[in-house]
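Worked example 3. Consider a protein that binds zinc ion.
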Amino acid sequence: MLWIVYMRCPVCGHVLATSAAGGAVPPFCSARCRAIDLGRWLTESYRIPGPSVQEEAEGLADLTDRMATSSVLAEEDPC
Ligand SMILES: [Zn+2]
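Given these inputs, the predicted complex is written out as structure tokens:
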């Protein structure tokens, strides 16, 4: 049995009819709209509830600082 699914593109609002028989169906009407949506994700227009990415970034910076400090100490040691 063939199901026809009507869905609305979340980017431009274009209604598209697609067959659900093929499994996963991308919700975008075109590659262009898919790229626009990806761009929104990359620029953090969309936000996902959860741990702050900022905190993770600060922890990584702290770790990098410690690594830099330990390498300096190793250079000062004549042994
Ligand atoms: Zn679209």
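Take a moment to read the result before moving on. The first strand starts at residue 4 and ends at 8. The chain has one domain: 4-76.
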